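C-alpha cells incoming
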C-alpha cells in the first residue's frame, strides 16, 4: 500500500514543486490546502500526495474542448461565492488603507509633505504585501476548487503563462476525461493546437493581385515584418512584390524600408496623402503582391489612426487585407489595449511579433483565445528574412512548451 506523504511551502506552488521533486512523474496529488504553521499566527500550504503507477483510463476521441463551458462554472458556484467573499474582504482591507492615506493627505499642509516620505514608504510596503497576500489566497482558492488529480495540470498551465481564468477552465474541462498523465499531456497539446485560430496562407491565382497592409503601434516591428514578407513572397513563392510606405513621420523610416527593397531589388514608393495610394498601386501593375507599411502610432492617438483609416477608405472598392502587429513581450492588458485601439480599422488577422523576447506564450494564447481573431504569421527575431514563420497551431504549442522546458533547465523562475 502506498503511503500518503505531506509537503509544505510558503506558497501553493512551492509545496507542489516539493511533491514533484520527491515523488517524480508518478506523483498523484490528493489535496492542497492552507494550514496553520508551527509559528503562531502564520500559515503554510500543505500538499498530500502519493507515488503510484499510472492506471487504466477511458479513451476519448480528440475534439476542441469548450473551455468556457457553463457546466464547469455551475459545478463550482458555491465555492466561487465563498472564495469571492474572501477576496472581497481582503480587497476591502486595501481600500481601507488607501482611504486612510487620502484622509491623511487632506489633513496635511504642503509644508508637512516632505516629512511624511518615510511614512509613505512603509505604507507602500504594507499595501504591496497585502496585495501579494490577496493573490496567494486567490491561487489557494482556485486549487481547492479543482479535483486533486487535476492540480498538476493547473500548475502546468500556470507555468506556461495562461491566465488564471483560462487555466481553471481548461483544467476543469480536462478533469472530466480519465486519461493517463502522459496521454493527457498529448491530448492537451493537440486540443490547444486545434483551438488556436489560424488564417491560412493564401494561394494567389495567376493574373490576380493582393494588397496587404500592416498596422500597429510604433516599435512592434512592422517595417521589418514587411521586409520579411517581401523576401518570403519573392524568393520562396516567386511572386512579383512591391512595397508602399506611409510612414513619413518616423525619422529614418523611409530609408529603412528602401534599404531592404534595394537589397531585394523590388520597387518601393513613399506616399503622404490618401489620394496618392491608388496612383502608387497603379504604378505597380506588374506586381502580384503589394505590401503597405503604415505609420506607427499609439493605440490612443485617434488622429493618426483616423489618417490610416482615410488611406483604407479613400477607394472603397479597393480590397486591402489588414494585419495587426502586436508584440508578445507585453502584458495581456497592453495587448488588449492595442487590439481595442485599432479595432475600428477592421483588421483581418494578427501577427504576434517579438516571440523571441517572451518566455510565457500561454499569456499570448490566452489573449488570442479570448479575442477569437486568427493569426497569420509570427515573428521570432530581427533577422531579415529568416525570422518569420507561417502561423500553425501545432508549431505555436510546441514552441510554447519548448520555452517552458528551456526556462526550467536554465532554472529561470517563470
Amino acid at each position: 500500500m502506498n503511503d500518503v506523504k505531506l509537503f509544505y511551502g510558503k506558497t501553493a506552488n512551492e509545496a507542489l514543486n516539493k511533491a514533484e521533486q520527491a515523488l517524480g512523474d508518478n506523483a498523484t496529488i490528493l489535496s492542497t490546502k492552507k494550514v496553520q504553521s508551527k509559528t503562531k499566527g502564520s500559515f503554510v500550504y500543505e500538499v498530500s500526495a502519493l507515488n503510484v503507477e499510472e492506471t487504466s483510463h477511458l479513451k476519448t476521441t480528440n475534439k476542441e474542448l469548450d473551455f468556457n463551458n457553463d457546466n464547469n462554472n455551475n459545478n463550482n458556484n458555491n465555492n466561487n461565492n465563498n472564495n469571492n467573499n474572501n477576496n472581497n474582504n481582503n480587497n476591502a482591507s486595501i481600500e481601507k488603507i488607501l482611504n486612510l492615506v487620502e484622509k491623511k493627505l487632506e489633513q496635511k499642509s504642503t509644508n508637512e509633505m516632505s516629512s511624511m516620505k518615510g511614512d509613505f514608504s512603509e505604507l507602500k510596503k504594507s499595501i504591496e504585501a497585502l496585495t501579494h497576500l490577496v493573490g496567494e489566497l486567490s491561487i489557494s482558492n482556485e486549487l481547492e476548487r479543482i479535483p486533486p488529480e487535476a492540480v498538476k495540470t493547473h500548475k502546468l498551465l500556470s507555468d506556461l503563462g495562461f491566465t488564471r481564468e483560462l487555466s481553471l477552465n481548461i483544467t476543469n474541462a480536462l478533469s472530466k476525461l480519465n486519461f493517463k498523465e502522459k496521454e493527457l499531456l498529448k491530448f492537451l497539446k493537440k486540443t490547444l493546437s486545434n483551438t488556436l485560430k489560424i488564417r491560412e496562407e493564401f494561394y494567389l491565382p495567376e493574373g490576380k493581385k493582393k494588397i496587404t497592409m500592416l498596422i500597429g503601434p510604433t516599435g512592434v516591428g512592422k517595417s521589418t515584418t514587411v521586409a520579411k514578407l517581401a523576401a518570403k513572397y519573392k524568393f520562396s513563392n516567386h511572386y512579383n512584390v512591391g512595397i508602399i510606405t506611409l510612414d513619413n513621420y518616423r525619422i529614418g523610416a523611409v530609408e529603412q524600408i528602401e534599404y531592404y527593397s534595394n537589397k531585394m531589388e523590388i520597387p518601393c514608393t513613399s506616399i503622404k496623402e490618401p489620394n496618392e495610394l491608388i496612383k502608387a498601386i497603379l504604378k505597380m501593375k506588374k506586381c502580384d503582391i503589394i505590401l503597405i507599411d503604415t505609420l506607427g502610432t499609439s493605440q490612443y492617438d485617434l488622429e493618426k489612426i483616423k489618417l490610416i483609416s482615410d488611406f483604407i477608405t479613400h477607394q472603397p472598392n479597393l480590397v486591402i487585407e489588414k494585419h495587426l502587429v502586436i508584440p508578445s513581450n507585453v502584458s495581456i492588458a497592453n495587448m488588449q489595449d492595442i487590439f481595442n485601439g485599432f479595432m475600428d480599422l477592421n483588421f483581418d488577422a494578427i501577427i504576434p511579433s517579438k516571440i523571441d523576447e517572451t518566455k510565457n506564450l500561454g499569456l499570448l494564447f490566452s489573449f488570442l483565445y479570448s479575442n477569437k481573431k486568427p493569426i497569420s504569421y509570427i515573428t521570432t527575431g530581427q533577422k531579415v528574412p529568416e525570422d518569420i514563420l507561417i502561423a500553425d497551431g501545432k508549431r505555436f504549442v510546441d514552441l510554447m512548451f519548448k520555452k517552458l522546458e528551456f526556462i526550467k533547465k536554465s532554472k529561470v523562475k517563470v
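note: Residues 53-64, 70-91, 132-137 have pLDDT under 50 and may be disordered.
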